Each structure stands twice: as structure tokens, then as C-alpha cells.
Amino acid sequence: MSARRRRRAAAEEEEEEEEAAEAGSDKEVDLEERLGELDLRIDSDVPDVPPPTDSTPEILKRALSGLSARWKNWWIRGILTLAMISVFFLIIYLGSFMLMLLVLSIQVKCYHEIITIGYRVYHSYDLPWFRSLSWYFLLCVNYFFYGETVADYFATFVQRREQLQFLIRYHRFISFALYLTGFCMFVLSLVKKHYRLQFYMFAWTHVTLLITVTQSHLVIQNLFEGMIWFLVPISSVICNDITAYIFGFFFGRTPLIKLSPKKTWEGFIGGFFSTVVFGFIFSYFLAQHQYFVCPVEYNSETNRFVTECEPSELFQMTKYSVPPLLQAVLGWETVNMYPFQMHSIALSTFASLIGPFGGFFASGFKRAFKIKDFADTIPGHGGIMDRFDCQYLMATFVHVYITSFIRGPNPSKLLKQLLILQPEQQLSVYKTLKSHLIEKGILQPSLRV
Amino acid sequence: WSELQSENKLDGETASDSESKSEFGGSPAVPTSDDTPEVLNRALSNLSSRWKNWWVRGILTLAMITFFFIIIYLGPMVLMTIVMCVQIKCFHEIITIGYNVYHSYDLPWFRTLSWYFLLCVNYFFYGETVTDYFFTLVQREEPLRILSKYHRFISFALYLTGFCMFVLSLVKKHYRLQFYMFGWTHVTLLIVVTQSHLIIHNLFEGMIWFIVPISCVICNDIMAYMFGFFFGRTPLIKLSPKKTWEGFIGGFFATVLFGLLLSYVMSGYRCFTCPVEFNNDTNSFTVDCEPSELFQLQEYNIPLVLQSVVGWKTVRMYPFQIHSIALSTFASLIGPFGGFFASGFKRAFKIKDFANTIPGHGGIMDRFDCQYLMATFVNVYIASFIRGPNPSKLIQQFLTLRPDQQLHIFNTLKAHLVDKGMLGSLEDA
């Protein structure tokens, strides 16, 4: 007993010294010390994470060896930015399926990054089962979401295959059973001395799943709505990042928020206006091509995704009267625009004003857990999560925006539900629909349709 | 008997004694105040403390069960309100534990933000439910119609406001605490609020889908306790030393039997088996309908094996009773994992009970820990095996589509029916 007390006292003293040196305020010491008491391992040597390994490729290093450190960093960031943008364009060219795969890989990588931080914070890398359980839960949740998406969009594909039908019909039950298995494994894996750690990691896993997996599925749903709904929001966020940085670089003076000392009000406002203009112009170009504008559909005959359709009215040029205020400025009375461009203003505004909060959240998170970057995947930029932190709020916003203002209920989902009904119910529904359509003149009664 | 002795010792004490050898100290558990009403205290003052505890628990159990029956009698609206109150109390209990663990009671904004998030998530879920079940009422009232049309957008905006307030409230020296509490709040919301809404969905499906699962879990609790009391010998799991295999298995069989009997009794009454509907004219809930085939007596052939035992060739049962076997099985076999999870949680954070709301039992969360998994299971079960999509709802959704989409769906449905031979060449069937 006394040995334990001595050890505990020693640890407390050591920690107190450390904290006193670091903080210097009574309340802080008190708080951190109490926190340390509770969970000593968290605070004693929280990974001021092992110094980030320099993953810059050799080539770049040699090419830039002549320049000073600051410019070298700037060049690396610049080159990597261009590289990422090129990869982005390449993937867009390759089509929707590749985009889906890309979104999936990014999701898995972000999840991995955040979970790894959790391991390090809690020194729980050696906990029994925990790594397997975290990946298992990722699998379950992905299975659940992909099942819901796939069932919707691949209705015709699924109809033809019996085994898939069974999986779809009982999808929720199967997903729940899978999740429960993981849950029971977690309960059975609770080890006497590590209860708290295990619960922390369990919660950490679930919050991470909530953030990364749900958002990535919203991104994919936006994608199916039309590639433009995927491209414009992402580009707006990237543009806001870059232009806010540039405006801040040249004109930055007033700090914006204590969390991120590098951000300035000038950058924020300048970024806002540039992003709106960028979004406006970018949507003008994209709205002209069917490839971007049409909902992605799966063609069961050719077994591939097609984007061909009659562009909806959102993407047809309409004449707008310029309000008298602007008429004087611009000199035009009417202007030809796509209605989508008005929506793009809403999207860009969100990307510039609220998107950064996602970045602040991530900054706060990094400071809370004393890490510089989420990981070292991208030289000069940090981890994948560092690039995507603003995108998450954006994806959810776009999805909510589409469901509220643009798209009515999803026809494929409705169709799927109709096909599950009992045959007698289907017949009666059929008759009701038929009489409705005839009434509205959409269906000609005399025609043998 | 030694296992039973430990029932009176604090679980937390035993656990923390051994745990403290490895995890240094820890904040003292919230001192438990004796909540037992004066009346009971005086009445039982003569008995030894062990029997006193037993009596207090017993009386409170009966009180809770009686309360349960009264609420059922009062109808769906009151039930919904009770579910809502239980949810809020559970949320409060868990959040308070978080505050105590992190000593973060004084963090700026945090209490307000937690309650705000609870409000947002509830608003979102109730909005979805209300829109479904009160469709006609909503369509009639103009402000409700707009709220329901842009429901997701409004909920998201409300949530975002909370999120931005959180980011703005980050204080330099308390980042980690604030993030922990943020995470804690969200996980709690995920558990408590989603499940309570699934319970309400089950309730709307028919009160029997609400009553039978909850009763099975309660019955399993009580039966496992009794079997353990009388026959308990082999410990079940290290997490909960009081539980025994005898209790577990005895509880399983007793619960299945209980479920069968309870469903038999309840299936006879319309007020339990009919979906709860909102009657627009009387502006109240009604439970009146033609009982579905689940609740109509049918003849079943007894498998040969049981025939010799039971002596009957056929038996008249409600199909629902077969489902009740599935529900009771889940309640007895998997439900306890919810209890183990809560026990683990209490040991991890060195608390004896979630709170002191119910004398002898602890907090509301202590009573409801097994119910959460059950509610989700029942909901998934109903969605997968019982309820198909609602045809009238589908027609309503159809009417909101664009004409070309309507035509496409109509043609696909037609092709499907022709395929199945239901339409043949009849065009005007």
C-alpha cells in the first residue's frame, strides 16, 4: 500500500512540476493535476507526438536544396497543392465510379488517422482486440450505409439477383446483427485494469465513425445527384482556403480568432468574395456539360454508370432581370444565367463563412491533443484529415440543401418500396396511380402504353 | 450465499479496491445520499440492513410496475411524454457523470451547450416522427407545413449554431476537457435520444410492441435474480460478479414463457394491437382497427416431438406469440450485454450507480440500461419482418414527384406486375 502511495506521490510531484512550469496559473495546475490523477497516462507525456518524419520525396529535396527553409516549405506546399489538384481532375475525368472509390479511400484514411491519434493519446496501442474492433465497426457502419445507397441506386441490378435481394430485404437486420456482434465482443473484451481506457476508445471510435463515415456517404449521395454537386462545393472550399491564405499573406493585419493565429479578418473577407465569384464562374462552365449536370445512373445493360439526361431547369439558361441597383453598375438590363448559379452563391457563402469553423474545430482538436498535424501523409500539408477538415461540414450542408430546396423525394427509393409490397397491394396502388395519371393527362387512356 | 452477500456491498467498492492497486487513486465516488422516503425508513427501522435493503428494493419495484400499468392505461400520449421524460433524465444523469469525471462543471457554456444539443437532436427526431404520423394535421396548418418542408434544413442550422458556439467557446487552457465533454455529449445523445425515438416508433406500431419487449426485459431481470438467489452457483462474467449461469438460463426460459403468456393475453385486445393513429377530426389518438393477421388466432400443428409431451395435436395461437419468442430470446440473451456494458461503465468511472433517483435501485439509467438494445432490436425487427411499407404513404410520396418520374415509376411497376402475371393483357383492370 505504502509503495503505491509513494509511487503515486512521486508521480504527482513530477506532474505538478511539469504543469507548474508549463502553465503558471494555480487554476491550471489544479485542473490538469486533477485530470492527471484521474488518468495519469493521458497527461504525463502526451505525445508531443514523435517529431514528424519528413516524407518529402527525395527528388523534391534535391531540387530545392539550394533555397532557404522558408521558401523551401512554400515551394513544397505549392507543388503538392498542384499535384493534388491534378489528381483531382484526373479522377473526375475517369468518372463516377473512380470518384466513389476515391471518397471511400479518403474516408478510410481519415478514420485511420483519427484512431491512431486516439491510440497515442491513450497509450492504448496494446489493448487487446481494440484495433480489430475499431476496424470491424468501420466495416459494419460502411456496410450499413453502402447497403442503403446501393439498394437505392442499383435497384435494377439488384432485382435480377436473388441473393442480393435477400441481403437488401433484410439489410437493416443484418447490419444490426453485425453491429451487435461487435458490441458484445467489446463487452467481453473488457479487461479489469483497463476499463476506462477501453470505454474511451469505444467512444472515440464511435464519434470518429459519426464524423467520417456519415459525411463520406453524404458526399457520395451528392455525387449521385450530379457531379456538379460534388465538384462545386469541394472547389469552393479549396478556393476559399487558397484565396484566404493569399489575401492574408498580402493584406493580413487583424487576427481573426485565437485558435488559429495565422488567420486574419482581411483573409476571411477577401476569401469570401473571391470564393463567391469563383463559384459563380465555375458553375457557369460546368452547367453546360451534361457529364456534370446529370444525375449519375447505373445502366444495367452496359453495366456502367451513365450521365445522360435532359438537363433539368436548374441547368437551362434563363433570363433574369438585373435589379435596378446593379443595372447602373453593369449596364445590362437582363442577364442570361443558369439558375444553378444562384444556388452556387449559397454554397460558396457557406463554404467561406461556416466552412472555416470546421477548420477551427480541427485546430482546437490538434491543440487539445498536442499534435501538429493529423499525420504525415502529404509532405508539407500533413495528413488527409488536415486537407479535409473543412469539407465535412460542407458535405452535410450540400446534402441538406439538396434535400430541402432542390430534389423532391427519391424516385428510386419509392420504387424499391413499391416492389416490396404484397402483390394485392401493388395492384391496388397501380390502379390508383393509373387513375391519377390519366386524370392529370400524363397518361393517355386510349394508348396501349 | 457469499455471492449474495456481495449484493449488499457496493459493487463499486469491491471493484475500486482492486482497481486502485493499478490505477492510481481517482476522484472519490459521488457520495450516495440516502434517498429512501422517511415513511419507509421508519417502517423498516427494525429490520437488519440487509433485509431492509431487500424490502426497499421490493417495494420500489412494485411501485414502478404499478406506475407502468397506470401509464399504459392513460394512453399513448402520456406514454410518449413519459418516454420523453425518461430520456431527458437519462441524458442528465450521464452528462452529470461526465462533469464529475472531468471536474468540468465550471467550464464556460458547457451545460448550456449540452442541453442545447439535446434540444436540437430531439427537435430533429420529433420533427421526422410528427411529419410521418400527423401528416394530415401538418398539411393543414400553414406554419407547420413550412416547418416540416424545410425540417432538415432548420434542424441542421440549429445544430450548426451549437457547433459554432462550441468552437467559439474554446478556452485556451481547457481545450482537451472541452473536446472530451463534446465527445461525451454526442455519444450520450447517440445512445439516449435515438433509442427513445425508436421506442416511440415501436409504440406507434401498436402498444403491444412497446409493452411486451419492456416487460420481457423487466421479467428477465427479476427472474434471473430469483433463479440466481435460489440456485446460483457458477459466476457468469467477471464484470458482474452477482450474475450466475443458473440465473441466466433460468431467466431465459422463464422470460420466454412469460412472453408467450403475456402476448396471448394482450393480443386479444384491440387497444394494444392496433397501430396508434391520430384522428384529425377528434384531434386525439385512436387505437381502432381491424386486427392484422398477426393477431388472429390460428391453428398450428405441434411438432411430433412435443405432441407426446403436451398431448395435443394442434394448438391455437396468435402468430404474434411466435414473434414474442424471438423478442424474449433477445431480451434474455443479448439484453444482459447492455447491463454488462453499463456495469463496465460504472466500474470504469468508479461510480456505484448512475444517480440516486430511485431509492434502492439507483438512477433511471440503472433501470433502463438493458432496454436500449431491446428498443433498437424491436425496431429493426419490425422494419425487417413485420411491417411492409405503407401503401397510402407511398401514394402520397408518388404525388409529389415530377410527371416524368411518375410515369417512369408507373411503367416499371406495370412491367413488374405483368412479369408476375398479375396484369396479363388486361389494360383496364
Give a description of the structure.
Chain A: It is a multi-pass membrane protein. Chain A: Belongs to the CDS family. Chain A: GO terms for molecular function: phosphatidate cytidylyltransferase activity. Chain A: Residues 1-29 are annotated as: Disordered. Chain A: This is Phosphatidate cytidylyltransferase. Chain B: Catalyzes the conversion of phosphatidic acid (PA) to CDP-diacylglycerol (CDP-DAG), an essential intermediate in the synthesis of phosphatidylglycerol, cardiolipin and phosphatidylinositol. Chain A starts with a helix and ends in a 9-residue tail after the last helix. Chain A is flat, with a radius of gyration of 27 Å. By secondary structure, chain A is mainly α. Chain A is 71% helix and 5% strand. In chain A, the strands form three sheets. A two-stranded antiparallel ribbon of chain A has the order 1-2. A two-stranded antiparallel sheet of chain A has the order 3-4. Chain A has two domains: 81-413, no CATH class; 414-449. Chain A has helices spanning 2-22, 26-38, 40-44, 58-63, 69-94, 96-122, 130-153, 155-160, 162-169, 171-188, 195-225, 227-251, 265-286, 290-293, 324-330, 339-353, 355-368, 384-388, 391-406, 411-420, 423-440; strands at 255-257, 260-264, 297-299, 304-306, 318-321, 334-337. In chain A, strand 1 (255-257) and strand 2 form a beta hairpin. With 429 residues, chain B is mainly alpha-helical. In chain B, the strands form three sheets. Chain B has a two-stranded antiparallel ribbon. A two-stranded antiparallel ribbon of chain B has the order 3-4. Chain B has a two-stranded antiparallel sheet with strand order 5-6. In chain B, strand 3 and strand 4 form a beta hairpin. In chain B, helix 5 (76-102) runs antiparallel to helix 10, helix 11 (208-231) crosses helix 17 and helix 16 (335-348) packs antiparallel against helix 17 (364-386). The longest helix of chain B is centred in the middle third of the chain and has 31 residues, at 175-205. The chains are: A mainly alpha (449), B mainly alpha (429). At the A-B interface, helix 1, helix 2, helix 10, helix 11 and helix 17 of A face helix 9, helix 10, helix 16, helix 17 and helix 18 of B.
